[in-house]
Amino acid sequence: xxxxxxxxxxxxxxxxxxxxxxxxxxxxxxxxxxxxxxxxxxxxxxxxxxxxxxxxxxxxxxxxxxxxxxxxxxxxxxxxxxxxxxxxxxxxxxxxxxxxxxxxxxxxxxxxxxxxxxxxxxxxxxxxxxxxxxxxxxxxxxxxxxxxxxxxxxxxxxxxxxxxxxxxxxxxxxxxxxxxxxxxxxxxxxxxxxxxxxxxxxxxxxxxxxxxxxxxxxxxxxxxxxxxxxxxxxxxxxxxxxxxxxxxxxxxxxxxxxxxxxxxxxxxxxxxxxxxxxxxxxxxxxxxxxxxxxxxxxxxxxxxxxxxxxxxxxxxxxxxxxxxxxxxxxxxxxxxxxxxxxxxxxxxxxxxxxxxxxxxxxxxxxxxxxxxxxxxxxxxxxxxxxxxxxxxxxxxxxxxxxxxxxxxxxxxxxxxxxxxxxxxxxxxxxxxxxxxxxxxxxxxxxxxxxx
Amino acid sequence: xxxxxxxxxxxxxxxxxxxxxxxxxxxxxxxxxxxxxxxxxxxxxxxxxxxxxxxxxxxxxxxxxxxxxxxxxxxxxxxxxxxxxxxxxxxxxxxxxxxxxxxxxxxxxxxxxxxxxxxxxxxxxxxxxxxxxxxxxxxxxxxxxxxxxxxxxxxxxxxxxxxxxxxxxxxxxxxxxxxxxxxxxxxxxxxxxxxxxxxxxxxxxxxxxxxxxxxxxxxxxxxxxxxxxxxxxxxxxx
Lengths: 451, 238
Known about the structure:
The structure holds two protein chains of two kinds. Chain A is of the alpha+beta class. Helix content of chain A is about 50%, strand content about 15%. Chain A has a six-stranded mixed beta barrel with strand order 3-4-9-6-8-7. A four-stranded antiparallel β-sheet of chain A has the order 2-10-1-11, covered by helices on one side. In chain A, a hairpin with a 2-residue loop joins strand 3 and strand 4. Chain B is of the alpha/beta class. Chain B has helices at about 50-60, 80-90, 105-115, 125-135, 150-160, 180-195, 210-215, and strands spanning about 5-20, 20-35, 40-45, 65-70, 75, 90-95, 170, 200-205, 215-220, 225-230. In chain B, the strands form two sheets. In chain B, strands 6-7-8-3-9-10 form a six-stranded mixed β-sheet, with helices on both faces. In chain B, strands 2-1-4-5 form a four-stranded antiparallel β-sheet. In chain B, helix 3 (about 105-115) runs parallel beside helix 5 and helix 5 (about 150-160) packs parallel to helix 6. Chains A and B meet through helix 1, helix 9, helix 10 and helix 12 of A and helix 2 and helix 3 of B.
């Protein structure tokens, strides 16, 4: 029989026992829906996690520190790497790194301890300088207030937790001023050094530390942590423009080390540089060339790899649970078609008497199963998508009550739609195999005698 | 009677069934030759094996031993696919209970063999109409079988059997569900069609008077054996 006639007859047969076939199809739809809902949840959570991580700027960023730098906070010393001798991380090094291929920008880490005065009360925290490019990283999406008006403005953005320390109503802080107290480093000429004369002085090109104050206008409050901690500093909770922070020449942690090493203070050295690559895929090669230049470098690429492994396993488990419902639906197809054979025994006999080959009868039943699977697949994808939407909606209602930002919990990408449809059809065809071969083997003489 | 090669040639055809330990010889060593264009009636009481013999000729069943030659081939030796093709193209079959598919219209019922034979779609409506015209039911094209009388349903079944232009028409008790007047009309129609289309007809029946009036020859079966095959006396209807 030609495929068009075959499909014609199959659709016709499906219409004849409409209720039963519709229920069977619905069973497939529910199975596919559970599969799609589960996987869309997995995909959605994965996207959510990767988005959060890429917003933190950690994935396309390489952190460069001088070799043999202390690791801080009790972490073990890194194995001394062989290769070029250690270099200091100064402006020359910064420019050299900037010239490497696939580098978008290189900016220094400026972080220092500070005491903030607000309403006459002191608050201790860490300040971080944010490059202007961080505006577009997504970290500041959904913030209250605005990003810095210019790269050199005397403005501050507060992390929400710190803002809560300052005021019971964090939102009211935007527009107010605070006073930043910090220690400014002032270089001392080598010639005037007088051993043991002044406790504040150091020998051999040291510097003095002078307390300073700066008034900053609070322009925004952010809920994420755009300057998540690394290098042993802890989280910075007061953010200011990087250029502004650099001009302060505030004393940093590496200053003491430089003195001990006897590095001249005329050249500014950085405790660490952040190097942003064009895309996470280039991080690995870039990291290697920076290490080659004689610096220590690390990125969080390995973390993203294990994250991907985790989600593959997670998706697999969700897929298996989702498939269980589809397996049950498959039994429904087998049942419906076996019933149909009993009911249509005579019809099968007539078809054979009129010249239908065994393969014609077999194909007819398989096409019927396939059509049920295809329709079930379409409705299932639709249901699954709606289910994902409903889950996202419900979650967001809850999150809103908790004063948290809404999230996109589930995601149905095209590959999932196609795969779910194909899976539904394949599984249904497999379910149709047994009934179809039974129908095909029916003895026409017996079938025609059957009343 | 034509004297050319017979349309159907049965050589020592047997069909045995096993039921537990017992072997039932439904058809036992039957040899029979049916010339082309003949209208043969197979008579016998129930269980005599006449329907089994008809199913063997129809290619719906296979003989345990012996050969059935039609169309120059031994259908006992055909593959199941070739046997299906043989049923489709060489044989037309009608039944006591008509066996029309109740959910399809007359047109769709008659189109069924054309679908199976993969006849071109554009050709089908004309073929269906032609078949229905032969049984004088062209005006009922869109009706369903249940809207028709028994005689009309059997005529539709005949149209369906003829639509692929078979050489042999097999009829299994075609008048069994009909009153005698309608039954006579059906047999009369069959005889006319046989003449018009040059077909060979084998009809199983247990109504001897009807068979005597319309068939050319009567073959009588009992206990699976062919008891006799004689020229019909040809009654008033001839």
